[in-house]
Amino acid sequence: MxxxxxxxxxxxxxxxxxxxxxALYKRxxxxxxxxxxxxxxxxxxxxxxxxxxxxxxGLTPQQLxxxxxxxxxxxxxxxxxxxxxxxxxxxxxxxDMGETSVTAANATDQRxxxxxxxxxxxxxxxxxxxxxxxxxxxxxxxxxx
Length: 145
What we know:
Blueprint: H1 2-6, E1 14-15, E2 18-19, H2 20-26, H3 30-45, H4 50-57, H5 61-69, H6 76-86, H7 114-123, H8 127-144
Antiparallel strand pairs: 1-2
Helix pairs in contact: 3-5, 3-7, 4-5
């Protein structure tokens, strides 16, 4: 039995036509999702459409969308190309990815970056709500000055 379990690298264990090892590798994690969100946020902050960035990278818009949603994992080489296309250092995508990351699961962190704020703001679908949030924040900033 042990031999059959350790034989996954030889393709002996199948999962929907793929080896178990490949199936486990393909599974996206919370980090993949956060990475995709950062790609999407930066793309929109640069004023690029999904189709435009995909064209620059030689991808289909559907593939880029899968990266942005965290459905598909981004290879190191592809992330490097994305960083070049968006004019950022590759480290940008990994800043605050540790336990201090501002996420719904860990909202107690006291540091909120401008990128985290923009990410949340961009997720508001209603334009009027976004303007109300901006006005509220502007009023709070004015009160602190």
